Amino acid sequence: MSGALSPGASDGGALRRSVLVVDDDRDIRETLQELLEQEGYLVATAKNGLDALARARDERPAVILLDLFMPEMDGMEFRQRQLLDPELAPIPVVVVSAAVGVEERVAALGISAHLEKPLQLERLLQIVAAHCTLPS
Amino acid sequence: MKRLRVLMVEDSEDDAILIDRELRRGGYATECRRVESAEGLRDALSEPWDVVISDYAMPRFSGTEALRLVREGGDLPFVLVSGTIGEENAVEALKNGAGDFVTKQNLSRLVPAVEREIADAQVRRERRKTLEALQLAVAARDQFLSIASHELKTPLTSLQLQIQSLQRTLETGLTEPDRIRQKVKRAARSAERLAELVNRLLDVSRITSGTIDLVRDEFDLSELTREVAGRFDEALRESGSRLDIFAAVPVRGRWDSMRIDTIITNLVSNAVKYGEGKPIEVRVEGDRERARLEVKDRGIGIASSDQVRIFERFERAVPERHYGGFGVGLWIARLVAEAHGGRIRVQSEKGVGSTFVLELPLGLPAAAGERGAWP
User: Fold this and answer.
1) Is ipTM > 0.85 here?
2) What is the Cα–Cα distance from B1 to B39, expressed in whole angstroms?
3) B216-361 CATH fold
4) What is the value of pTM for the model shown?
């Protein structure tokens, strides 16, 4: 299926400056959204893995910030399903989680970075910027 | 006469009779079975025994091998009785876990040896039990700590992001008051959440380490319930559940209002969390002796096999950590209900929903008096 691309998607630049924030905590979702929008990114949010799959299809973000423990569908399952979908599989994922002792499981997910909560904003912005300026 | 179930590993019937006679002389009503091979021993070990008395050297079997087989099945008292065992072999057998050895020439030592080995095995069993309980407690505490740190980090992350973002906003010089107000508001809310979590953590450790001291005041449970439910407006909007409150009639009693507040909060919060956006009903009723609070959801429900477990510490019916919280809410609710002389229970069906019922004696001097726990 071909999800609707966001406006300006034909313009490579706009497309690459979009971020999908996946977190079950509303405060964190909204804070990250606001912060990233302030930096000029297009931001979509999702509150669990299932929601995120739909949003990723619709928005085709340049990068996905993924929490791990969420109800209904957790981050691990989201990543597995994402990789099974040829259209979503190439989107890089940055795990953002407060979970302890999950390093091995996260490493097995084949993601591009793992940030631990609490977050360093500068570090997060650097990583997001790096993913959004990668040559397509 | 004390009953003693004796499993003998002995090739000589005569020796077995001698051993049995010695035990009977020592005041035991013995029930003996004699085996002389590995197969025989394996078969016999499926029955309960008080002690295994084994020969050392047998034509088809050995005491060493018998000891190994017995130890595979657990820590059964084991005493070697032999005419031929040398000192070296005896030491080796003791090292491998035999309780004692007695020579056939000196059978008068048999009864004290058996008695001591049985007492020792009892001590070893108790020690193992204590150790297992301690290991479980440590594992539970470790799990709780990792959940607690995860739960604390979530509002902390939000708080920290807000502050960092405020810093950035102020550095740019673009200080729009509305935007800053919004960020400060959210930061304050995160700080409140943190404070609340820390309070609950303290409560857990207080409850774990001792009894619950109740601070009783007379108040109206209906009013408190309406007040608590009012705090869920935002959460309800987000989850999509409708909350209907049936608490029009005052139900007054003497209870610990802060702790009852915690219970109601916990029950309503669970109903919102696991209610799948379907309607929730909260009901308060009372008669001359007791108050009854009911919280009913139509969500994921709880399998009957989990319905007792959820009232234990650090337990929840859903997979670990997919839902927020410490996993102690219902445990605390149960302890607090019981401290009031009341009880809490659940009726639930998987996929249909759950109804939690809290019942509290009114605790008023005019009533029939303080009642004990329900039967």
Assistant:
1) no
2) 32
3) Heat Shock Protein 90 (3.30.565)
4) 0.61
